[in-house]
Design brief:
This protein is of the alpha+beta class. Helices cover about 30% and strands about 25% of the residues. The chain has a single domain, classed as Alpha-Beta Complex (endopeptidase fold (from Nostoc punctiforme)).
């Protein structure tokens, strides 16, 4: 029998390694350790502890950032725009970033998630770790999202 939590752990680790290997090595983002810390914390919350947060996707990501040691005062907004655009250049997005976007896969509602890696960067499809929200009693999950309409990106300082 396959242990799904172990499989998911391996998957996240591979995604993190691949996304770091593919990321440009700019001086300020050479390892993105803070982003990895946020992703690992969110992974633990979703797949190990199976934390249920009665609230929204925003509440889950906020809790992950805070648990990872990045409360609001230790976050920086690297992109912000009105919800109707213009939208972020996808090259700004790094592993562990908290993105807010128009969720084209679900009624074009506002949605928050954590960026893990690109599934198909050309089509702006990303592997994300997010939370269904809407007061559902289910933990976070990996999902693929179209990130063509990202209107805010937040990252740990």
């Amino acid at each position: 029998m396959i242990n799904l939590s172990r499989l998911q752990s391996v998957y996240l680790s591979v995604c993190l390694l691949l996304s770091l290997a593919a990321a440009p090595l700019a001086a300020e983002e050479s390892t993105n350790t803070a982003g990895n810390t946020v992703l690992w914390t969110a992974y633990q919350m979703a797949f190990v502890e199976k934390v249920i947060i009665v609230g929204s996707c925003y509440d889950f990501i906020n809790a992950a950032y805070t648990r990872a040691g990045y409360p609001p005062k230790l976050r920086k907004t690297v992109f912000t725009s009105p919800k109707k655009g213009p939208y972020a250049d996808i090259d700004l997005i790094q592993p562990g970033d908290w993105f807010m976007h128009i969720n084209l896969e679900f009624n074009s509602v506002e949605h928050s998630g954590l960026f893990v890696s690109w599934v198909d960067k050309e089509r702006k499809i990303a592997k994300t770790l997010d939370y269904a929200g809407m007061n559902r009693k289910e933990p976070g999950k990996f999902r693929d999202h179209d990130l063509s309409r990202v209107y805010r990106i937040i990252r740990p300082k």
